Structure formats: structure tokens, C-alpha cells
Amino acid sequence: MTLSTLAPPVLAPLRALFDAAVAALAADCARGGKLDAQCLDEQQLASYEIAWAGADLLAAETLAGAAGDMGELDERLALRFIAEAAEAVLRRLEPLYLELNLDAQPVHALAASPDLARLRREAASAKVQAQIGQQVAGARSEIGDVPLDEQLTNAGVVAGPERDPSVGG
């Protein structure tokens, strides 16, 4: 079970599905080459779902991009999160595809894919979660430290007072 082998076969098609939903919403709300604020306002639910799905997907991709830069426990925690995030994004995309008149079959296909099943089985089964819990309980060092790239750091995505001097004392 490795981050570099389990995550990409799920995240790459998930990104493509997400991008298609974003493009469809943008096309629906484009007026004269610009996004129309009133149309976006009328599509608040779709915009909200896209924002949440995008946040989950970006977090999963960030973790997947850190493959090789983390220890075994952090990698197992990352895989667990990626499995959960992939399922959450798919749950948000399915009604969006219907709302935006997109063919939802590719969403259903990924949800039922062997790649997602393998990720869920190897990263999020009850047995694996129990093993991760035991590892977390027995950890003697910091866990969950994910290196952020410059773009995320500059965007204010920080974790903890050690990354933001204005936090804490």
C-alpha cells in the first residue's frame, strides 16, 4: 500500500470529472465572455458544492503530491483522508452533473471502479483504521506534518502557530 500507487488512479479521473463540472457551470453562467454574477447567484447551490468538492480534491492532491516525503504513519493517514475525500467529492459531483445536464455515467463509473475499491480497501477498511489508530496512539513523534508548496503557503494555508507567527503568543 503506497500513496504513489493507490491515489493517482483515483485522483486523476476525479480531477477530470471536477473540471468538467466547473467548466459546465462557467459555460452556463458566461455572458459576453464573463461570468454573470446574477447567474452565479441563481446557481448558489452548484457553486457551493463545487467549492467544497474543490477544497477536498485540492487537499487530497496536495497529500498525494507529498508521496515520498512522509513517514509510514503519515502516509497511511494521508491515504485514509484521500479515500474519504474521493468519496465526498463523488457524492457532491453526482447531483451537480444532473443539475448541469452532464452525463453522470463517468461519475458512477469511478464510484464503482476497482481503483476506488482498492483504495478504500487498502486505506480505509475497519481493519486498516484500527491499525492506524494503534499507530497514532503509540506514536512518539509529530504526525500529520504535510509540507506545503509556496502557492499554498502564500495563500494562507497554514497549520499551527509554528507556521504563522501571528498565531499564539
Describe the overall structure.
This protein is an all-alpha fold and 169 residues long. 69% of the residues lie in helices and 2% in strands. It contains nine helices and two strands; from the N terminus they run ααββααααααα. The chain has helices at residues 3-6, 8-28, 37-42, 44-65, 72-99, 105-111, 114-124, 126-138, 150-154, and strands at residues 30-31, 34-35. The protein has a two-stranded antiparallel ribbon. Helix 5 packs across helix 8 (126-138). The longest helix is centred in the middle third of the chain and has 28 residues, at 72-99. Mean pLDDT is 87; it is low at 163-169.
What descriptive keywords fit this protein?
169 residues, mainly alpha, 69% helix, globular, disordered C terminus
List the helices and strands and how they pair.
Layout: H1 3-6, H2 8-28, E1 30-31, E2 34-35, H3 37-42, H4 44-65, H5 72-99, H6 105-111, H7 114-124, H8 126-138, H9 150-154
Antiparallel strand pairs: 1-2
